[in-house]
Design brief:
Structural class: alpha+beta
Distance between the termini: 35 Å
Strand order of the largest sheet: 1-2
Number of helices: 2
Largest sheet: 2 strands, antiparallel
Length: 114
């Protein structure tokens, strides 16, 4: 299967939390800070980003405690589903290759018998 199939599966499974461009939740105790939708941490605007899959606003501190997966360009919640979809594609491709190899082996044996 192609990676496009994995992308389509991911977008069908992920629930939209916010619409694209929808403003993040304000912190009630400060004027210029916002709440991360995953860890509930209080961050400044430049420390959060919106996930293109689910719409959550998440922190991207580039530390161990951030909720953003830079490699997949998604929040940690969506990145788990993306990884599962990618691994599913790899497993399906491996299964297809093994089936094709076993069919080739059978055809080779049939050719030898003739």
């Amino acid at each position: 299967m192609s990676s496009k199939d994995a992308f389509e599966r991911v977008t069908e499974v992920i629930e939209k939390i916010r619409e694209p461009g929808e403003k993040p939740e304000d912190d009630l105790y400060s004027m210029d800070k916002f709440v991360c939708d995953l860890c509930q941490g209080i961050k400044e605007r430049e420390q959060i980003t919106q996930c293109g899959f689910c719409g959550r606003w998440v922190c991207k501190d580039k530390g161990e405690d951030d909720c953003w997966n830079e490699e997949l360009n998604a929040c940690e919640s969506c990145s788990g589903l993306i990884t599962l979809a990618q691994k599913g594609d790899l497993e399906e491709e491996t299964d297809l290759k093994e089936e094709n190899d076993s069919q080739d082996d059978k055809e080779d044996e049939d050719d030898k018998d003739e």
